[in-house]
Amino acid sequence: MSCEEYQKNGYLLRHDFFSEADLVRIEPILQLFHEQWMGKNREHYQSQAINSAYITRRHATPDDARQTLFDFISCNKMIEIANSLISGEPAFMNTQLFFNPENPDQKNYWHRDIQYVPYSIDRQKERLASSTVLHFRAAMVDEPGIELVPGTHKRWDTAQEFETRTGANNRMPHDALPDGKAIPLKRGDLLVFSANMIHRGLYGGDRFAFDIIFSDADPELLQFVEEDCLPDTQEMQTLEHPEIFAATWAALAGNNKPGKTT
Question: At residue 223, what are phi and psi to the nearest 5 degrees?
Fold first, then answer.
C-alpha cells in the first residue's frame, strides 16, 4: 500500500517488514518489561487493562536495553515512512505494548485516541483536521490485529459511528460498524495507522504488539511526553535518526520543559 493509499484510508500495512533478527533483538526486552509491569499492575490487568506504556522510561528498562529500543525506534526504514506521512518534522511521542485482557469475555471498543484528551467535540474536530499522530505497530506474533474504519482519519463520525463509540442511544462501543475493516497481523508485519481514526483492537491468539507513536512536532500534542522516556544527548549520538527525539525535546522546551544535555 502506497503513501497515497494511506492518505485515502488512514493506514499502511507492510508484510514481513521486520526481519527475525530485528524482532529477536527487542523481544526479550519487551517480554521482561511486560512481566515486570504485570507484577506491579495485577489488579489493573485483572479489571480491564489491554495495554501498557512508557517502555523506554529510565529505570523501567536497563540502560543497554533502552539503547537497543531507541536504535529500533529510530531505524532508517521506519523513519523514512514517518517522514513520508508527516508533513514537517516527525517527533517521537511514546511506546506501548498491546496484549489480551485477562477476562476472555471482555469487550473491545471503538474509539479515536483523541477522545481521551480533555477537548470539546469542536476542538476534537479541529485537531482531527490539523494534527497527525501515527501508531507504528510491530507485530511480535500472529494475531487478529485491529479493525479500522478507513477514511475516518480525515472525516468526523457518522451518527451511527458516534453513538457506537460513545455508547449513546442504546449503542455499545463494541457493536459492529458497517464500514469496519479487520487487519490481521503476522509476526514481522508493520501496521501504520492514524491514532485519530476510528479503530478497535481485536483480542485473541497470543496478542502481543509493540507500538511506537510518532506525531507532528507540535508542543500541544507532545505536552504529556515523559522526559524519562527520551534519550539524552549522549544516548542520541549513536542513533540513525536522533532528530525524531530532538524534535520532541524542542517541543518540551517550548512547553517550558527543558531537555537533558548530559
Answer: -65, -25
Read off the pLDDT of residues 136-153 as tens digits, 9 standing for 90 and up.
Answer: 999 999 999 999 999 999
For residue 1, pLDDT over 80 is answered with no
DSSP 12: E
Residue pointed to by grid coordinates 497481523 = 185
Q: Look up residue 199 and give its three cell numbers.
A: 479503530
- What dihedral do alpha carbons 250, 95, 126, 202 form, nearest 10°? 170
Q: Is 54 helix (H, G, I), strand (E, B) or coil?
A: coil
The helix (run of H) or strand (run of E) holding residue 158 is: none
pTM summary value: 0.95
Burial (CB count <10 Å: 0-12, 13-18, 19+), residue 184: middle
DSSP three-state, residue 228: helix
Cα torsion for 53, 59, 63, 65, to the nearest 10°? -40
| CA 212-217-219 angle, 5° bins | 110
